[in-house]
Design brief:
Strand order of the largest sheet: 2-3-5-4-7-8-9-10
Distance between the termini: 44 Å
Order of helices and strands: EEEEHEEHEHEHHHHHHHEHEHH
Number of domains: 2
Length: 330
């Protein structure tokens, strides 16, 4: 496996990002060592809050929450998933799979010896970390899921496989603006997410900074530059391009059996589990968490208004208060 490392100069003078970088080496199943970056702020002996980002952002997306959470007395740990941020980036799309991301993140949790974790998972930070929760639930005290899910093919009949595969294969590669319009309109004859899969997969101008500029409320030019910083050329983008293709949209996806096993464990998870979803995001995923996970029963789940897919940016103060109140009240 060939591994790339974004030059440190790319991270110079990023807007509102004063945090000292921390690194730990993790090991791929093929024996390759990779360096994984993480923010580690606050009381080193404090209760742990672990924030896990999604696609195509990185730990920078939690910058507005780190300081207030640390000032509240917590140890705040925010990793960059492999392929993102300051973490190492395997150079081939084929290096990235759902299972690999789970193994890499699990190794991170083990190497840092994290326990009694308060987990906040957004977008891909949800399914990856929830698969790790399923491996050892005893490490996690509380979970907050925001704008995320864990797909396992539930509700999709097997006879739809060929139809869905054909729809995905025939989905046109659109610009970011066209994709955004299609997703807002509902996608038409195919699931709207397929347009995002194809854009990330094949559009020549896929740029995480442009995604942030369009999808995050009030994103400035400097913030957009920071979201693009980890990806100085196409070679560094392979993990960010691959993520949407790993979402198990179709029942024959290779990740589904392991996701189904994870759900079996989550259906026994009785520690507090809160959903805090934006009002425009995947309410079906939130409802499933609330219904099927015992720890979610009886809680006052939250709908975040005036926020898009990235509430850690759009509604950082609100999400910080939700997380702190959840910890204090449970």
């Amino acid at each position: 496996m060939k591994v790339l490392r974004t030059p440190e100069i790319c991270f110079k003078n990023l807007d509102d990002f004063p945090f000292v970088p921390n690194y730990i080496n993790i090991r791929d199943s093929n024996g390759t060592n990779m360096r994984m970056h993480y923010i580690d702020e606050g009381d080193p002996d404090g209760e742990i809050i672990l924030c896990v980002h999604g696609q195509p952002v990185w730990s920078y997306s939690f910058r507005k929450m780190v300081r207030p959470l640390a000032e509240a007395g917590f140890r705040v740990v925010v990793p960059d998933l492999i392929g993102f941020g300051r973490s190492d980036k395997p150079s081939e799309r084929s290096d990235y799979s759902f299972a690999s991301h789970v193994n890499w993140f699990d190794d991170f949790v083990i190497k840092l010896n994290l326990s009694d974790i308060n987990l906040l998972g957004q977008d891909w930070g949800g399914p990856i970390s929830l698969r790790v929760v399923a491996r050892d639930p005893s490490k996690f005290s509380r979970i907050v899921a925001t704008n995320t899910g864990l797909g396992d093919g539930t509700g999709i009949p097997a006879e739809k496989i060929s139809v869905l595969r054909q729809l995905l294969n025939e989905t046109p590669v659109l610009s970011l603006y066209e994709v955004t319009a299609m997703m807002k309109a509902g996608g038409g004859v195919r699931p709207a997410f397929m347009y995002w899969v194809r854009h990330c997969d094949a559009h020549p101008k896929f740029d995480p900074g442009e995604v942030a500029k369009l999808w995050i409320n009030g994103c400035t030019d400097e913030e957009s530059r920071a979201f693009s910083a980890p990806f100085p050329s196409e070679a560094y983008l392979q993990g960010a391009r691959q993520f949407p293709s790993l979402v198990p949209l179709i029942p024959d996806d290779p990740a589904i059996p392991d996701n189904q096993k994870a759900w079996e464990v989550l259906r026994t998870f009785d520690r507090p589990f809160l959903t805090a979803f934006s009002e425009t995001d995947n309410t079906a995923a939130a409802a499933r968490f609330q219904m099927e996970i015992p720890g979610a029963h009886g809680l006052s789940h939250v709908t975040i208004k005036d926020s898009g897919h990235y509430p850690q940016d759009d509604a950082a103060d609100r999400l910080t208060d939700i997380l702190l109140d959840f910890i204090r009240n449970t």
